[in-house]
Write the structure tokens for this entry.
Amino acid sequence: MSILDTLQKMRATGQKALSVLIDPDKITDLAEVRRIAQLVHESRTDFILVGGSLLTTDHFNLVIQEIRKSVTIPIILFPGSPSQISREADAILFLSLISGRNPELLIGQHVVAAPTLRQTNLEIIPTGYMLVDCGRPTTASYISQTFPIPWNKPEIAATTALAGEYLGLKCIYLDGGSGAEKPVSAEMIAQVRQTVQVPIIVGGGIRHEDQAKEIYAAGADMIVVGTAFEEEPELLFALAQSKTNW
Ligand code: 1GP
């Protein structure tokens, strides 16, 4: 079964998914990858996302190879640019930044990436990527040169997501950006949930189990946690509990 099929099935049956985001820049040695893999395994995390808006190191592929050796769960690329494509992964979120009006991130970089992707076996998951202002400027909004959707404007998020679904995008990713001050609001997630049928991914600024529960209850199908996991890896166990207890 494809990853998208899995997500759609989870959505249909009310199951929730938890993903860890690994930023290759934050990995200082490969033993760290093995430690992460062990935690991921023990905590029943569902997916590993790999990528970042800006990579400053050159060990992207090495890190993914090490993850591949260490885990059995799917590895999904979450690329900040076409240089973040690896055959070692299982799938790629083919992100169109629909909250912004930067043509390079709506279609330009996709044209650059398409011929490379055709030569891989990666599952391509067309994803409407929406940045939301969650309290502080993030690398994602700076690098993408786009304005995030205002935190208190759920109707903008809902109509943007609907347009994305009408365009054929298969997932919506609401992202406050890495290290956001607070997560995307439950009200915004709920309005998007009421408006589109596709699976909803939510990330950015999730640090506590109660936030995860609120986000799942509002209608998110998958939560992505990066920064808080880097700071406190054991948090993964509490977040995984909230998948079934929201
Ligand atoms: C960022 O959604 C991810 O794109 C994860 O954000 O690092 O704040 O968990 P955090």
